[in-house]
Every structure is written in C-alpha cells, then in structure tokens.
Amino acid sequence: MIAQIILTLGLSVCLFYIISLGKSLPIVRLGLFLVVLTGYLFIWFPEMTNIFASLVGIGRGADLIIYLWILMSLFLILKLHIKLREQSEALTTLARHLALGQDQNEHQAESTK
Questions:
Q1: How many Cα neighbours within 13 Å face the side chain of 106?
Q2: CA distance linking residue 87 with residue 82, whole number of Å
Q3: What angle do CA 19, 42, 12 make, to 5 degrees?
Q4: At what angle do helices 61-112 and 26-44 cross, to 10 degrees?
Q5: What does the CA dihedral 40, 44, 47, 49 come to, rounded to 10 degrees?
Q6: Which of 50, 52, 78, 93 would be 61's cystine partner, CB 3.0–4.6 Å?
Q7: Which residue, 61, 43, 35, is CA-closest to 6?
Q8: Within a 13 Å sphere around the CA of 43, how many CA atoms are in the beta-carbon half?
Q9: Distance CA 38, CA 68 (A)
Q10: pLDDT, tens digit, for every residue of 51-86?
C-alpha cells in the first residue's frame, strides 16, 4: 500500500507537469496523459497487467511493463538524438553565417580605407 501511494504521488507530479506544458502539441499531451492514466490503473489494479499481457501473448504482466518501458525508452532516445542533430546543424549554420558576415565586414572596412 505504501508503494502504491508513493508511485501515485510520482505519477501525479508527472501529470501536473503535463498539464503545465501549456501550448505544446495537444497530441503529445494527450498521449502522455493516457500513459499516466494507464500507470494509475496498473498501480492500483496490478492484476490488470496480467490480463493485458495474456491478451498479447506475454506470460506475466511485469514482463509486459518492462517491454513497454524498453520501447518507450528507445523511442525517446531516438527522438532526443534527432533533436540534438537538428540543434547541432542549426548551430553550425548560425556559426557559418556569422563567420561569413564577419569576413564580409572586414573586407568592407579594408576597401573603405
């Protein structure tokens, strides 16, 4: 019972964060909201995990949760990797434009002398 309360409080903090995201993509917020609600369901009714696991051909509910966690983690790592590459490319482009702009300014200053 204590573990259920602690886990529920942790999910409630996550839910509060999801609600505070404001104008982020509604589909992302809805997906995260559904994940938190599913977490509440599995925390308070752990036997439901066994039912869902047997529906998809997995022996135990705990195994199902671990497999889902692995899939979600891999998805998030991939998403973060893509975002990091986009940021790196944007920074490279910005640095290139600044360097070229500075070079043009130096040439203009030399030509006016």
A1: 6
A2: 9
A3: 25
A4: 150
A5: 10
A6: 50
A7: 43
A8: 18
A9: 12
A10: 999 999 999 999 999 999 999 899 989 999 999 999
